[in-house]
Amino acid sequence: MIRMKLGATKPMIYYFPGMLILVFMMTVFEVGVLKNTLSLKIQATSIDRPTYLELDVVTMETLSRHLRHIMETETRMEINDLIGQNSLNVKESHKSGISRNIPDTRPESCTTIEYSIENLPYVSVIIPFHNELSTVILRTAHSILMRTPSSLLKEIILVDDASTHDYLKTPLETYISTLSPKIKLLRLPERSGLIRARLHGARLATAEVLFFLDAHCEVNTHWLEPLLLELSKDRDVLIVPAIDRIDAHTMEYSAMDRAYRGTFAWDLEYTWQIVPNKQNQMLTENSPIFSPTTVGCAMLIAKEYFYHIGAFDSEMNIWGGENIGISFRTWLCGHGIKIVPCSRVGHVFRPRLPYKNFTYHVLHQNLRRVAEAWMGDYKKYFYLSTKNVTLGAEEKRTLRARQRLAERCRARTGRDFEWYLSHVATDIIIPPDGAVHFGQVKNIASQGCLTVSDIGHFTVAECAHFTKSQQFALDSTGRLIYQDKFLITRKNPSASFGLTVVDAPIKNYATEELGKWYLDTETPAFIQQLRTGRIKTPVGRLRLQLKGVPAASSCLTQLTADHTSGEQYVDLHQCEEKQVFQYWQFYHHVHGADAMFN
């Protein structure tokens, strides 16, 4: 055990245009174990068998004193203000401490892998924050220091995006200056937003590999080595850990229940997707997973490659869309995205975004830049799912650089967005021309999705994004379309109940004979209160207009076939305003469909 006496700590201040950098220099070689609330271990520089260093008693007492000062400063704020600004349980976060043991959530086969880290590169960890809760951001920093080989960790760059809370000023500076000389604090003079804050941190980074991390995360055991090992095989890949869940209410750390990858909807919202069976069958539990998109909270990338593919778009504002943008770019300009199951990082999934002055208009603007630069002709589906807005002169001007980057990538790799859909995001359903509503059809009461079984029966099952058996479209002529088939009232001869798919080309659909579907969006207020999630599309009853049949008798209804087994099916029933199982919601609603397709 190596012990070193704590000397005077003085910050060295560097001035750069528009920013202030505080790099704390101290005589302590490394931080060890801080007892009670601060139980911290740092790996030494031994490569084959890392050892752990411990703090001396004086340093532990100093850190404890600094932490008390932070907490005292923080508790002067109204607790409701802290909860509202952080969207998590403040008391539970404080009770959890800033350095804690968390479950090792790696697949069992990962725990026996031994990593030779001698030839792996240094990494700079970049963590932007704005008015983050003290215990949250310190827990993030502590988890990195206690679970990362010091021979691989070049620096942790905390980017303060113009925080206003006093406890994040001098008290935080004093604490981290004692904690580790590897922590740099970059103060931005005005609010820049998460995306630009990351760019500021990347410019300051001195390592050849960058790891972007949210400030409300905890890295797990041996999180870095498998990421760097994958990067060493191919520098033109974006590497992502498997993301675990930290509950915003209880602060409990738990593994995701299944293997997930990232994909997207046509509104460019990031979506978790269970790894498709075909892909899953070819993988072992520790095999890297190729993913169409990446979540934004944790990603590792070679610095040179990061800038080669355009970094983040500096014209994006505050939060959102940068992960979709870099996902498209790394597939169209490089070799894609890998999720590494042997690397685990926990993330606090908050019930709402804590960003002040953030609106979904800002997110739409960011995503619009992605669509305009990278999606080519397929951008029309983005506008169908959101809204078609005329670009202003300034936005067009700033987009040209991103569009030129896309052109250079296409010239070099021969890839465009059509290639991406054909080779990477192969399960994205392209809506038919004239679609008014499309995607999954969710029952408001059960939260299940309309599904076609293997034998053509219509059921209601758990919603699973981009499962082809759950993809429908309702077009402007009244056709309810399933793939290249259509849904009508005809019963399946082998069943005593339910609707079925008729195997016939869409062009042969005669609406006068077979009826027209429409979504009746006149709904009582109590139905609107059953909405869940962020999907804002219309809710209504799916009615079928049939010649000679009263419209009131033709509402699509979720029913139970067998109360013992709970088997669900759908059929047409008498329309009743209070029948909650008659209300449905499509994942996408088209804005300006006629204008876009004509």
Radius of gyration: 27 Å
Distance between the termini: 74 Å
Strand arrangement in the largest pleated sheet: 23-22-21-20-17-28-25-24
Q: For this structure, what is the CATH homologous superfamily of one domain? A: Spore Coat Polysaccharide Biosynthesis Protein SpsA, Chain A
Gross geometry: globular
Question: Would you report the number of β strands?
Answer: 28
Number of helices: 17
Mean pLDDT: 81
Report the sheet with the most strands, covering strand number, pairing sense and barrel closure: 8 strands, antiparallel
CATH class of one domain: Alpha Beta
Unreliable runs, pLDDT <50, ≥5 residues? 1-48, 50-55, 593-598
CATH architecture of one domain: Alpha-Beta Complex
Which structural category do the helix and sheet elements fall into?
alpha+beta
Assess the beta-strand content as a share of residues. 25-35%
Helicity, as a percent range:
25-40%
CATH topology of one domain: Spore Coat Polysaccharide Biosynthesis Protein SpsA, Chain A
Question: Describe it for me?
Answer:
The chain crosses the membrane at residues 12-34. This protein is of the alpha+beta class. Among the domains are: 10-251 and 293-304, Spore Coat Polysaccharide Biosynthesis Protein SpsA, Chain A (Alpha-Beta Complex); 435-597, Trefoil (Acidic Fibroblast Growth Factor, subunit A) (Trefoil). The chain is 27% helix and 26% strand. It is globular and about 85 Å long. The N and C termini lie far apart (74 Å).
Q: Can you lay out the helices and strands and say which pair or pack?
A:
Elements: E1 10-16, E2 19-25, E3 42-43, E4 52-53, H1 57-74, H2 79-86, H3 90-96, E5 123-129, H4 134-147, E6 153-160, H5 170-179, E7 183-187, H6 194-204, E8 209-213, E9 217-219, H7 224-233, E10 238-247, E11 253-254, E12 260-264, E13 270-274, H8 277-280, E14 289-290, E15 298-302, H9 303-308, H10 322-333, E16 337-349, H11 360-374, H12 379-385, H13 393-413, H14 417-423, E17 435-443, E18 448-452, E19 458-462, E20 472-475, E21 480-482, E22 485-488, E23 500-502, H15 511-514, E24 516-520, H16 525-528, E25 539-545, E26 555-562, E27 567-573, E28 583-589, H17 593-597
